[in-house]
Amino acid sequence: MKHLIVILTSFFLLNACSNELELTAPWENIPVIYGVLNEADQVQYIRVEKAFLDGSTSALELAKSTDSIYYSDVLVQLERPSFNSTLTLERVDGVEEGLVRSDGIFATTPNILYKLDLEGIAPLEGGEQVTLLIIDNKDQMLASSETTIVESFDLIRGRPGDDLNFSNYERVVRFTWRPTENASIYDASLTINYKENVPGSSTEFEDKSLSWTIATNFLKESADNKTQIEIEVNGEDFYTFLDGALETDNRIRKFVDMDFTVTAGGRELAEYIRIRQANTGLTSSQNTPIFSNIENGLGLFSSTAMASKTGIKLT
């Protein structure tokens, strides 16, 4: 999650800043929000920050000030109409939660997030509509957003199989899953697990893994058969990935197994990615449109779900 947070927040800042000038502008109270919920997680995190351009200080300086980018006194709540309940999130330091913010133009410590621990509370349910509320210290609504929780879904049995056959470059392996109603976009990846000898030893090994994205930003409407989504990978793709990902040296490496994972994203994520991609390439303009589904603010509020198969071997 932390990488997406940084990407999104940096995007909003860079759309407000020039490469040549350090712009300033009249101060406005504009919440900037990032939250992607997952029904499988007991603990959910939401990032709430504020736009920080003002009339006297450059944005690049303000980005380093935690007082400038974080609210100190807002209430962050999640409404669940299906359960007739409103849950209040806890303000926490992400560093203490094991969520360290990547280095960049923004202050990294503390890494303020709002945490919802569902222990003892009904978990999020696929198809459930939820509303995010940001309320100031005068009980005034600052911003809000709604999303529908993406349901869990299944991989189709036998694709991928328990063993993958990449015996030659032309050999095709099929990966198939059933689309879920509230998801609009999918990523699919293989994690290749292996052991590698410790330098200077031929008997001592350490566990390592490589993550290979085999399909990214795959839109559900791109599937020919709406009852299932299928992608194909051939042996050449597999060996080309390994060739680029592993260093050529005298290490001893032993294959262990692979894990296949599909991540499904809600329609808001799909729209955000679609808009970002619509203005890229050699012929694009410099004015990238901003997607936001936050009322009275900027940002992204959506959900994801995952399906996986572990322990896959090679023939």
Describe, in plain words, how this protein is organized in 3D.
This protein is mainly beta and 315 residues long. Helix content is 14%, strand content 40%. The chain has five helices and 15 strands. The chain has helices at 2-14, 59-62, 66-69, 235-245, 267-278; strands at residues 31-38, 43-50, 75-80, 85-88, 90-93, 112-117, 129-135, 141-148, 163-164, 172-177, 183-197, 205-219, 229-234, 253-266, 298-314. The strands form three sheets. Strands 1, 2, 5, 6, 9, 11, 12, 14 and 15 form a nine-stranded mixed beta sheet that branches. Strands 4-3-7-8 form a four-stranded antiparallel beta sheet, with no helix packed on it. Strand 3 (75-80) and strand 4 (85-88) form a beta hairpin. The chain is globular, with a radius of gyration of 22 Å.
Q: What structural class do helix, strand and pairing data support?
A: mainly beta
- The shape, in one word, is globular
Number of strands: 15
Number of helices: 5
First-to-last CA distance:
34 Å
Please trace the helix and strand order, writing H or E for each element: HEEHHEEEEEEEEEEEHEHE
Estimated radius of gyration: 22 Å
Low-confidence stretches: 1-25
Instruction: Quote the beta fraction.
Output: 35-45%
Main sheet summary = 9 strands, mixed
Mean of residue pLDDT values: 85
Question: Helix share of residues?
Answer: 10-25%
Task: Tell me briefly what this model is.
The protein is mainly β and 315 residues long. The chain has helices at residues 2-14, 59-62, 66-69, 235-245, 267-278; strands at residues 31-38, 43-50, 75-80, 85-88, 90-93, 112-117, 129-135, 141-148, 163-164, 172-177, 183-197, 205-219, 229-234, 253-266, 298-314.
